[in-house]
Structure formats: structure tokens, C-alpha cells
UniProtKB/TrEMBL annotation:
Protein name per its UniProtKB record: Cell division ATP-binding protein FtsE
Cellular localisation: Cell inner membrane; Cell membrane
Gene field: ftsE
A GO term from the CC aspect: plasma membrane
Single annotated GO MF: transmembrane transporter activity
Function text: Part of the ABC transporter FtsEX involved in cellular division. Important for assembly or stability of the septal ring.
Family to which the UniProt record says this protein belongs: Belongs to the ABC transporter superfamily.
Family matches, as Gene3D superfamilies: P-loop containing nucleotide triphosphate hydrolases
PROSITE patterns from the UniProt entry: ABC_TRANSPORTER_1, ABC_TRANSPORTER_2
Record membrane topology: Peripheral membrane protein
A single BP term in Gene Ontology: cell division
Keywords from the UniProt entry: ATP-binding, Cell cycle, Cell division, Cell membrane, Membrane, Nucleotide-binding
Length: 220
């Protein structure tokens, strides 16, 4: 699903942030991506999404070599990936409900065909009472949950989530982890970048990708 071979990344003329990364993300797998602040977790997620080009090495996404993809092919691949950004990236002029429904609307689907599904998902993430509120009025944790719902609504083949429980209390973090686990059981590969040791301990046996000093250590 994702393959990195000897990937290195530097920003501008700086030192290499990531060095010699070689790993796979298998279909229907679940992994945590962890490491100290500044280790390069967000950078690695951006590389997987092909939002950043590697300075060296090869990356393939769904079997396509990143170096040879044109813009249209890249857009088509990205549609199969759900992303929860650290800064949420909700649209402020759309309500919570409209933000979550947006990927479906963009696909040309009719509101009646997805309304129940969007409402159910928003209920699950605890936003059932916040449907008609605009993002500037939402708390950090509420924005985070809206961003998660938007990433999940398309049932992506691959989910990349950057600190998806960073702004919620432990109880909600457990609930969201259950949601990610259910998504995984239904066939999605999940990558969760997190510092949260408690969260990782709740899913013993999950693969851990640990970044440190520019290198990746994998614990299967
Ligand atoms: N656009 C950029 N230009 C230059 N340097 C950058 C850029 N983005 C990130 N960096 C640097 O790359 C390093 C890795 O950053 P990154 O955000 O990937 O780390 P992280 O592990 O996600 O950190 P955190 O856990 O604090 O979110 C940091 O030293 C950061 O300052």
C-alpha cells in the first residue's frame, strides 16, 4: 500500500531530518507513529501523502511510483487517503455538518443519500449537538473530532492521523481509538502519529514506528 526505499528528506539547505527510511505499510494494518517532538512525524505523514517530495529515495503509494505521477493521478490516489491534520483544516464558513459532508458533496452525491451516515458519525464522535455550529465557535477538541469525522466519512483505504487525540480528554481519546480500530477492522490501514503512551498501551500488539535521530525503528 505504501513503500519507502532509502528515503531521505531535508528542508531547503538544512540537515537531513529523515534518513534512510525503508519500510512498508501493509493493506489492512494498524500502526502508531511516535517519537519526540520535532522527530519528523508530521514530515513523514506528508511524505506518505505525497504532499512532500523526498530529497532522495523512492516512495510508492498504492503501487504507483511517486516520481512518475502526474497531477491527476496524484489527486486520484489522494482520494483514497483520509487525513486528520494537526491543525484540523476545517472550513470556517461551513457548519460542522457541512464540513463533514463536504467530501461526499464534492463527489456529487445527493444530500439524502448521505445525511443519515453523516449524522451517525457525528453522533459517535460526540458532536450530535454541534451540527449547525461553525468551526470558530468549536473548542479545540470539538474541531479535532469534526476533522476526524470528515476524514472517515469517505471510508478511506488509508487513514493518516496526526495527533488525533491531542486535544481531547482520556475518555474521548479511548472512544476515538475504538473508532480507528473499527475502521481498521473494516479494512482500512491506519497510521496514527502520537506522543500519547496511554493511547498506545490501549492497543497492545499494534505495530510501532518510532522516529529518532532521523531514523525509523519498527517494532512489530
Ligand atoms: N516547512 C518546514 N521548513 C523547514 N523546517 C521544517 C518545516 N516543517 C518542519 N520542519 C522541521 O522539521 C523537523 C521535524 O518537524 P515535524 O513537524 O515533522 O516533527 P514532529 O515529530 O511532527 O513534531 P511534533 O511532535 O512537535 O508535531 C523540525 O525540526 C521542524 O522544525
Amino acid at each position: 500500500m505504501v513503500r519507502f526505499e532509502n528515503v531521505g528528506l531535508r528542508y531547503g539547505m538544512g540537515a537531513e531530518i529523515l534518513r534512510d527510511l525503508t519500510f512498508d505499510i501493509a493493506p489492512q494494518s494498524f500502526q502508531f507513529l511516535t517519537g519526540p517532538s520535532g522527530a519528523g512525524k508530521t514530515t513523514l505523514l506528508r511524505l506518505i501523502l505525497l504532499a512532500l517530495r523526498p530529497t532522495r529515495g523512492l516512495i510508492s503509494l498504492f503501487g504507483a511510483d511517486s516520481a512518475t505521477l502526474d497531477k491527476n493521478a496524484l489527486m486520484a490516489l489522494r482520494r483514497k487517503v483520509g487525513v486528520v491534520f494537526q491543525d484540523f483544516r476545517l472550513l470556517d464558513h461551513l457548519t460542522t455538518y457541512q464540513n463533514v459532508a463536504l467530501p461526499l458533496r464534492v463527489q456529487g452525491k445527493d444530500e439524502p443519500s448521505y445525511r443519515a451516515e453523516v449524522l451517525e458519525l457525528l453522533d459517535w464522535v460526540g458532536l450530535g449537538q454541534r451540527l449547525h455550529v461553525y468551526p470558530p465557535v468549536l473548542s479545540g477538541g470539538e474541531k479535532q473530532r469534526a476533522a476526524i469525522a470528515r476524514a472517515l466519512i469517505m471510508r478511506p483505504e488509508l487513514l493518516l492521523a496526526d495527533e488525533p487525540t491531542g486535544n481531547v480528554d482520556p475518555q474521548m481519546a479511548r472512544r476515538l481509538l475504538r473508532l480507528f480500530q473499527e475502521l481498521h477492522k473494516s479494512g482500512t490501514s491506519v497510521v496514527i502519529a502520537t506522543h500519547d503512551l496511554n493511547l498506545m498501551d490501549q492497543f497492545e500488539g499494534a505495530r510501532r514506528l518510532v522516529l529518532g535521530d532521523g531514523r525509523l525503528h519498527i517494532y512489530d
